[in-house]
Write a structure and sequence with these properties.
This is Ferredoxin. It comes from Streptomyces synnematoformans. By secondary structure, this protein is α+β, with helices and mostly antiparallel strands. It has helices at 15-19, 45-54, and strands at residues 3-5, 24-26, 33-35, 60-62. Strands 1-4 form a two-stranded antiparallel sheet. Strands 2-3 form a two-stranded antiparallel ribbon. Bound molecules: iron/sulfur cluster (SF4). Residues 5, 10-16, 24, 26, 33, 55-57, 59-60 line the site of iron/sulfur cluster.
């Protein structure tokens, strides 16, 4: 699994960090997404996919 995020279009909702906190975090200053693990383990697959689906800006891409 490989994650990419278009941070320029992130609206800082925090949904990804709520759904998959081991993989996503937010910058303290503005809430924009920060990837904690670019190549997360298999046990995070479902959470990462859910984060991608629930992201209101649809900027999370999972390969
Ligand atoms: S869910 Fe999407 S819009 Fe919200 S913080 Fe994460 S990447 Fe940004």
């Amino acid at each position: 699994m490989r994650i990419s995020v278009d941070t320029a279009k992130c609206v800082a909702s925090g949904m990804c960090a709520f759904v998959a906190p081991e993989v996503f975090d937010q910058r303290a200053e503005d809430g924009v997404v920060v990837i904690r693990r670019w190549d997360p383990p298999e046990d995070q697959l479902d959470a990462v996919h859910e984060a991608a689906v629930r992201c209101p800006a649809q900027v999370i891409d999972v390969e």
